[in-house]
Amino acid sequence: MNNQDIFINWITEHEKLLRHIINGFEAMPSIQEELFQEIALNIWRALPSFRADSAVKTFIARIAHNVLATHVAKAVKTIKTEPSTRSLTDTELHQAQASDNNIPVCPQPTPYQSLDQNQRQQKLAQAIRLLKLEHQQVLTLALEGMSYQEIADVLAITTTSVGVRLQRAKAKLMQLLEAV
After folding, report:
1. Is the pTM of this model over 0.70?
2. Which of 44, 48, 70, 100 is 20 to 30 Å from 63 by CA-CA measure?
3. Which residues of 62-72 are buried (b: 16+ CB within 10 A; e: fewer)?
């Protein structure tokens, strides 16, 4: 298989992961799309250096987080003028809440549940964007179902640091959600 085929397979297989991670850092859909393209370009450029000493998912997530960390650093220097318009999908919020509470995920919520989930989802996405970068990183990766070891590999930190950051991120997130 040549690099182009590998790249297409990776992007196809991990597009949802990348879009979820991007959404955790940026609210504006147009900028989200630009970030996706920038991440894809960086994956293409890094493809020849992939040595298979980590999982493809970890490799791709690390590239995404490097791009997003740069984006956040630049964004801190500028004033955002457009309001947040994109939030997590109903499925994402439902799965995140269910996993936190060890509740099985129901495949088809009722219309009332969907409306309520959409509102909670918007609040959750907005609150995540208010967190420090290091907390956004561990939280978005944890919501994607990555293990502490995978998160540690992506962020080049220890698993202990992942646990500490995740605990602090959850505590701060709870404060932000209760304040809303």
Report:
1. no
2. 100
3. bbbbbbbbebb
